[in-house]
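<backbone_tokenisation>
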Amino acid sequence: MVAHVGLHALGRFADRLGLGDALSSAIPWTGERLPIHDRGKVVVQMALMLAGGGESCADIEHLRLQEDLFGWVPSDTTVLRTFHQITAETRAGMARALAGVRAEVWRRSQATTGTDPVILDIDASLVEVHSEHKVKAAPTYKGGYGFHPMFCFADPTGEALSSVLRPGSDGANTVADHVTVLDNAVAQLPEKIAAGHHHGDDPALVVRPVVVRADSAGCTEGFLSACRDRNIGFFVTARSNPQVTGAILAAIGEEHVWTPAVDQEGELREGAAVCELTSLISDPKLPEHTRLIVRREPLHPGAQRSLFPSLEFRYWGFYTDCDGDPVTLDVTMRAHAHVEQHIARLKDSGLLRFPFSDFEANANWMMAVTLSADLVRWFQLLCFDGPWQSARPKALRWGIFHAPGRLVHRSRQRVVRIIDGWPGTQALLDAYRRIALLT
């Protein structure tokens, strides 16, 4: 009997993509002798462990005990040593290697084809730690203690294109960090999509539009200027200020300027309405052609802070430089909420545990977490249909990754027979067939 058959399928998928070889080529070795375990393969095996719900280096032993299924897996000591050997420069090289693998995945996925804008989502999240011995862990603005990593996700696929580990005391609206994760995310896009979206590129080079969304932390002059310099459109949550307040006040009672809002499926949102108030503001810090869109909704218990004090409606707005009618733009901006699901998936896959004292080692751990999450998303997009394509980590573990089976040695071959009646048996068999078809 063997366990974690689904993780074996995930590993087979990673091998088919050439992920281990790509990472190995980016990790130099400076010792006297070559390591017994290839460091690129070690990182991929850690990604499998994290996908299966592992939370520390020691959890790699669950795969190491099944050599017939997973091959020669490193010990927890080797894994720990690997995380302490990878430098920031090496991580940058691994990111470049990963971009090549990602381009092949995007070429095969229907979620990334077409001519629609590629939407990126930036957000930061607090991660609590319970040790003062971790380098750069610091008090947070919410009164906690830990780290404050920032991420940039691809909305079409949910991939974490880039991330930066930051001390808990770092602010949410730091311009330099926003620009860094944006540039690193663009570097992860396929070449045809990234063309024209690097700093200083000629707008004529743009083949496919790229748009970035952020909450009010991204509503800074420096970040919006950086987007314009990269020919990237933007959606950012508006902050409350006298001009915005005055514009909303002028629109109150003018019902003809408000248009009923719709949800993501195009259905009317009861009591909600949208209007454009661009002509009522004049802010020299905003890039040219920036528009202000405001939405109002009936007040409800637990509603977040409003742009305008009202006993009847909650007002919320955003700036954008994109074309389109206000209702459609509002739907696009509200989809920024997907970023919370992406971060929740990372937190359910190892992000809540930074097991090392050294800051660089913890940054490498976060790199492995995002790599694991991206590998799982690729696996879902290319090898599954239906509900399994969007299943959460817990559902994948119980239904796919932890599937038990029987290992049979026959005719000099090893055959894994998945238990009949397991919830994910048919989906897993179909996944193996699709992996075999990958070229």
